[in-house]
Amino acid sequence: MSAHLVTSVSNQMISVSNHVTYMSNHVMTVPNRVMPVPDQMMFVSNHVTSLSNQIMSVSNHVMFVPKQLMSVSNHIISLSYRMMSVSIK
After folding, report:
1. What is the pTM of this model?
2. What's the 3-state SS for 6-71?
3. 36 belongs to a structural domain
4. CA dist list (Å): 7 to 3, 21, 47
5. In a domain, 87, yes or no
6. What confidence tier does 89 reach under pLDDT thresholds 50, 70, 90?
7. How many distinct structural domains can be found in the chain?
8. Which domain holds residue 27?
9. Model confidence over 31-66: pLDDT tens digits?
10. In a domain, 76, yes or no
11. If you average pLDDT over residues 58-86, what whole number do you get?
12. Would you say residue 74 lies in a domain?
């Protein structure tokens, strides 16, 4: 009777041990699933930063165009004043 009880307790302990091992393995897989998320977030963040920089670059180019047009306009005004002064003489 006593040997049967020891065997039963031993089997239950093995069962508990197996369950703990299973739970441990399950918990170990959680970081593997969670880890890709920050990496993906970093990728998205880098992509957004890259797009932002490209938009800034385009914006700077667009801002540069009016400055060039203003410069051309000033040259034309200057030339027209010169032509007027020549025609007056």
Report:
1. 0.39
2. HHHHHHHHHHHHHHHHHHHHHHHHHHHHHCHHHHHHHHHHHHHHHHHHHHHHHHHHHHHHHHHHHH
3. yes
4. 6, 21, 61
5. no
6. low
7. 1
8. 2-63
9. 777 777 778 888 888 888 888 888 888 888 777 777
10. no
11. 84
12. no
